[in-house]
Amino acid sequence: MSKHVLAVEDDRDILELITFNLEREGYEVTGVTTGEDGVDAARTEKPDLVLLDLMLPGIDGLEVCRKLKGDPDTAHLPVIMVTAKGEETDIVTGLELGADDYVTKPFSPRVLIARIRAVQRRRERAEVTQEDVIKIDDITIHPGRHEVMIGGERVDLTFTEFRILHILARRPGWVFTRHQIVDAIHGEHYPVTDRAVDVQIVGLRRKLGPAGEYIETVRGVGYRFRDS
After folding, report:
1. I want to staple 98 with a disulfide (CB 3.0 to 4.6 A). Which of 41, 81, 127, 158 is the partner?
2. What is the pLDDT of residue 130?
3. What's the CA gap between 164 and 224, in Å, rounded?
4. Number of folded domains in the chain?
């Protein structure tokens, strides 16, 4: 398992705490204290995962996440937000931008390390999957490449958006509850609200354009991929 972590945290005491505990577990840690330096380090250091504080001087953590996910060279990087802000709106916004997990301060170093390992395991399972390519009308979903094509044009999706689409499309007509979707992507007991799933679906439909109509809402239950 790759072990290079970029920690973007403006509180130097917390940054030292993160660095000390991760290095003790065998991780290589690059630490920076501003959002601008975080973006630069992600592009130059090529980390395997980013720990990202939300409240940063200069550009904040949400903007850093937006920049990383909007750059093809860094869009694949797993991002765990580490912040004192734990309101639902922050969680929803972070997930919509493509964050993989969300840890609130104060946190236990052991819990943080467990979350890092869980995110890495999910990413590795997704990368090595050998499931067949899914083709539905003009939509092509390639799990191994983590790629979606519509009418021959590539659609850029976040890791979470891709996983939602893949989960729904591989079983057309099957209804998935919001909890089933979250469990399939993040594992059980992940702290995400129904609202966060709905926001992800809205963003996914928007990116799919007219093909977004394939994702149907089943009132009072969840979502399904239309069985055409």
Report:
1. 158
2. 46
3. 10
4. 2
